[in-house]
Amino acid sequence: MVTLATDLKALIAGAAGPLKSARGITTVGDLLAFYPTRYVTYDSDLAGLVEGHFVVVVGEVKSVQLRPMTARKGMMLNAILTDAAGNEVTMTFFNARGHENKLHPGVRVIAGGQVTRYKRTWQLAHPGYTLLSDLTEADQPGLYPLYPAVPKMHNWTLVSSVKLVLDAIGELPDPIPGDLRRRHGLPSLHAALTGLHRPDSHAHLEASRRRMQYAEALVLQTILARARRAREQESAQPRVVVDGAALGVFDGRLPFTLTDGQLAVAAEIADDLAGTHPMYRLLQGDVGSGKTVLALRAMLTAVDAGAQAALLAPTEVLAAQHHRTITTLLGDLATGGVLGGHEGGTKVVLLTGSLTQAERRRILLDIASGQAGIVVGTHALLQDKVSFADLALVVIDEQHRFGVEQRDVLRAKAATPPHVLVLTATPIPRTVAMTVFGDLDVSTLTELPAGRTPITTHVVDDRKPNWVARTWQRVAEECRAGKAAYVVCPRIGDETGADGGEDLDAEDLLFDLDPGLRPPAGVVATLAELRDDPALAGLRIECLHGRLPTEDKDALLAGFAAGDIDILVATTVIEVGVDVPRATVMVIRDADRFGVSQLHQLRGRVGRGSDPGLCLLMTAADPGPALRRLEAVAATTDGFVLARLDLEQRREGDVLGVHQSGGHRRLRFLSLVRHEELIAAARADAATMIADDPDLERQPVLRAAAEQWLEPEVAEFLEKG
Ligand code: ADP
Ligand code: MG
């Protein structure tokens, strides 16, 4: 019996060799998963040929001409094909090599090749072809599939090999349960594979693709539903809001009222914290949407319950800033344990890698004794020596910089699994949230607090000196009016050899540098340039980048916030979270070197106060995709629109982190951008199924498919998000 595991050699003999050596295809299953990339129709109109296109045409041989070649030995063969309307194309073989025995006038052939134009005739040079008389009607799929190239193998051989295999194999074990398949009107696996390899029509092909998309969505959502269920089996200690304690005092002092969106999310978080299972919630909201204040309220709930909260930040700069923000917002509530401090208050400590031994020891003691109710830190929080008295809540700022191991280390520091709140300012389209963060509950802040002034964004052509001059004039005007500006460059450019972390980071800079281009603007050179610019005379200009010592970075940011520095020339070290309300202008040099989401993040550093923000995207890019990207960023400040654009522009595999793996990408049909509804349906189906049959005992095929997905690197990715 032929199964997916059957060796191809037994079935298609000679054709198996090239498939194995070129594509690593050895089994029936491998071959059936080698999908065509394009389909063409037979009635390809010979009148509509386009130079350079690959076509498959059906026609009748009208005449054949065999003649010796002038420049070298051998015979050349030209066979003219015509269609019913009398249009012609010439099949040209520079070495006749026996084609003359097959291509006689009157025979009908299906021929495929690249169209060229020669002396006012259309030609197919060295086309692959098959005589239609060699094929039975049933041998011809309705649409002719084109496979990725396999050296030493004509496309037609693939078509016939796949047919052989499809005919030999029976109904296949199907990961989609029968009732779901019927409910969604999806074909069986065998039928869908037939539809992909030998479609009768476009509708047939579409239905088959849809089935494959749903199957991928279902497998993925099943994995996530099981992860979620496993989490729900864990128990956590409920942490309940206490009336009149620190949270109440804090709320009473807030200088603004929370937006409806914030209130709704706050209620969700409070519910979670009061629950007996660990919260595991992603809070996403555009820059400035007010996430920090909600995270702080959650931390105060932990404090009020007599426990502790930790806030984990991706960099020292951000950790220090969170610490400053939190102590400022809390006022005397942050002086708990100190003589004269607020009695409901607590101690807020900052633990980073750059403390003196003595400071460190003191802070570790505060954490271990429970004196410190709120602990802010970097990955230094993850070290063995750090032990908490009673860790109730972990807030993770910008999860994508943390892996699952780190998350688990923090969880392991609590007696019972702590509640986890993840903050992200990188808006994630709903489908991605459902897929990538499928085991998290997601809360979204969609509106910005009222009273924000919009940011205006312009693209500045770097090659026009008067535009550039105008840019620095604008910066000078703002700074002379008491405001401040960032100037962001793609790299440090101090030529000390290896580039630092934020320098030309492959992940940050999506778009490869063209070696022919000048290097992108650097912080060091820009600093010198701006200090020399008469338009900026008298302004205080400094630079900030990841290679500076931490104290310097902190001092620079503090100076910038306090108004001692007018212009801060920086790398993307300021990308996430830096909050200086007096900064109103963001200039980004060589902006085309950054991705859409990253530009949006950078832009979010301005317009945080009551004054309008201005973002100037400098670029020397020619009209084309890079410039269009910048124009898109200039056209909207809606982070979700931009996130979607970003997603569309990356390969989806990159977004998911699911790269080639053993020659098989896992998401081959499903698009996170286009298949939102399908993913939502699969998510609901998976939830129902898992609630009823958590270990998928009744769905062994689906379970096997899920387990196959969960090979290590995918599992890690799903966890990491
Ligand atoms: P995020 O962390 O989402 O970027 P923040 O929490 O830092 O946003 O909020 C940005 C600024 O807006 C802060 O100065 C914060 O105090 C302020 N803010 C937060 N919520 C509100 C609100 N409801 N009304 C007015 N200002 C707010
Ligand atoms: Mg924030």
Explain the overall architecture.
The protein is an alpha/beta fold and 721 residues long. Helix content is 37%, strand content 18%. The chain contains 24 helices and 21 strands. The strands form 4 sheets. The protein has a 7-stranded parallel β-sheet, with helices on both faces. Helix 8 runs antiparallel to helix 10. The longest helix is centred in the first third of the chain and has 32 residues, at 202-233. The two termini are 42 Å apart. Mean pLDDT is 84; it is low at 496-517, 651-664 and 717-721.
Task: Compile the SSE list and pairings.
Blueprint: H1 9-12, H2 16-23, H3 28-32, E1 38-40, E2 54-68, E3 75-82, E4 88-93, E5 108-118, E6 121-125, E7 128-131, E8 144-146, H4 155-168, H5 178-183, H6 189-197, H7 202-233, H8 246-253, H9 260-273, E9 280-285, H10 291-304, E10 308-312, H11 316-330, E11 347-351, H12 357-369, E12 372-377, E13 391-397, H13 404-412, E14 419-424, H14 430-436, E15 441-445, E16 455-461, H15 465-480, E17 484-488, H16 523-532, E18 541-544, H17 550-562, E19 567-570, E20 583-588, H18 596-603, E21 613-619, H19 625-635, H20 639-649, H21 652-656, H22 676-692, H23 700-709, H24 712-720
Parallel strand pairs: 4-6, 9-14, 9-15, 10-12, 10-13, 11-12, 13-14, 16-21, 17-19, 17-20, 18-19, 20-21
Antiparallel strand pairs: 1-8, 2-3, 2-5, 3-4, 5-6, 5-7
Helix pairs in contact: 4-6, 6-7, 7-22, 7-23, 8-10, 9-10, 11-17, 14-22
